[in-house]
Amino acid sequence: MATFEATAEAAAKNLESGRTLRELSDLFTPMAIRVAITLRIAQKIDAGRLTAEALAADTATDADVLERVLLHLVTIGVLTRNDRGEFGLTRIGEDMLVENGKAANPPWLDLNTVAGRAELAFTRLLDVARTGEVAYSAQYGTSFWDDLTRDPSSGTDFDVVMAGGMERRIREIAEAYDWGALGSVVDVGGGNGTLLTGLLHAHPRLRGTVLDRHAEPALRTFEDVGLGERATATTGSFLDPLPPGAGGYILSRIQSDWNDADVRTILSHCLEAARPHGKVIVVDEFATEEGVRCDSEDDLRMLVYYGGKERTMEQVRALAADVGLSVESLRKAADWTVMELAPAEN
Ligand SMILES: C[S@@+](CC[C@H](N)C(=O)[O-])C[C@H]1O[C@@H](n2cnc3c(N)ncnc32)[C@H](O)[C@@H]1O
After folding, report:
1. What share of the chain has pLDDT > 70, as a percent?
2. 165-289+306-343 matches 1-97 in CATH topology
3. What is the pLDDT of residues 214-243, one digit of tens each?
4. FRET pair for 244, CA 20 to 30 Å: which of 79, 149, 235, 288?
5. Under a CB-based contact definition with an 8 Å cutoff, are residues 108 and 118 in contact?
6. How far is the CA of 307 from the centre of ligand 1 (A)?
7. Could you tell me which CATH number the domain at 165-289+306-343 has?
8. β partners of residue 252
9. Model confidence at 291: pLDDT above 90
10. 292 pLDDT higher than 70
11. CATH no., domain 1-97
């Protein structure tokens, strides 16, 4: 995103909208919106609870405080308020009606979800710069992933966000590479099995296993789509040695969640399991090669949530080389790349 054109575009947008540095950086507007989303204020207004008193009674909050929060949403054009003190939704306010995880409101706007909590760790960004700490873990005393494991409903939301909008991409990823020739794959950190399902549908000879912190979401997916014995899932960690013997070990959107040392560990576990003839296949949208980030928003999210980063293809290739993997082929799948790696000695 940080190309010169994008910078110029963003600067022009700020000028056009008259936004000041203060407006770009205030915390009260984002927090007021997140509080309203967390309390399902839009749904309650839609259901006829219109005054601050009615809304407070329905959300177990203080009416005076809630009214002050809602009045800020009136100020910024998310809510309306009439002279009877009744709140309504503006066009943008209606976006709050969309349930979490389904469309407009990703779970990170709901302060009760793990992702919503993760966003709050951005207040530690200066500490991250000074000490290199992982902001989420420093804030909550536990890692993002351990929190997701403890809270299955947030885990499901996260899987839904990850799988969202993937249909077309998965078709292109399935076409970009001869997955069937691998015979079997382990989708390492394969979430709820969405990618593996697409690959198995497109390649009838292929069998596969998802390995993730929880096997259940993928097992449910495979049962729903009737893949039978061709697909299974197992609970495990890619920070530990992986089950050996598959033809391919897929790492889809994994590397950016981890720091360089952990990526080397994960890649070397894939390599050990894949030896002597298997492949390690990184599927990802890489940062651009110009030395600037393709997506600064995601890059900062990776940093704060997990201590990870958005990497260029070259950076991933270098980490793979560190553990003895070399690039055999690169295939484009829309804006994604399928990077086939094999033991360097082959
Ligand atoms: C960004 S998501 C990517 C999911 C999927 N591969 C995709 O492309 O949609 C990262 C995945 O890594 C999994 N994960 C995190 N830590 C893990 C670990 N130590 N071992 C196995 N899986 C892990 C998460 O549960 C999540 O499913």
Report:
1. 92
2. no
3. 999 999 999 999 988 999 999 999 999 999
4. 149
5. yes
6. 15
7. 3.40.50.150
8. 283
9. no
10. no
11. 1.10.10.10
- Please report the pLDDT score of residue 294 as a whole number: 54
Q: Are 98 and 106 in contact (CB under 8 A)?
A: no
Q: Which stretches of 184-242 are DSSP H helices? A: 194-202, 216-225
Ligand 1 centroid to residue 336 C-alpha, Å: 18
pLDDT in tens, 116-171: 889 999 999 999 999 999 999 999 999 999 988 887 777 777 777 777 667 788 99
Q: How many A from CA of 251 to the centre of ligand 1?
A: 9
Question: What's the 250 CA to ligand 1 centre distance in angstroms?
Answer: 11
Query: Which residue from 114, 134, 145, 197 has its CB within 8 A of the most atoms of ligand 1, so it is best to mutate?
Result: 145
Instruction: Give residue 56 CA to ligand 1 midpoint distance, Å.
Output: 38
Residue in 196, 211, 213, 286 to alter for ligand 1 test, most ligand atoms within 8 A of Cβ: 213
DSSP 26-93: -SHHHHHHHHHHHTTHHHHHHTT--BHHHHHHHHTS-HHHHHHHHHHHHHTTSEEE-TTSBEEE-HHH
Q: How many helices (H) and strands (E) does the chain have?
A: 18, 9
Nearest CA to ligand 1 atom 12: 189
Ligand 1 residue neighbourhood (C-beta within 6 Å) = 145, 162, 189-191, 195, 212-213, 237-239, 252-254, 257
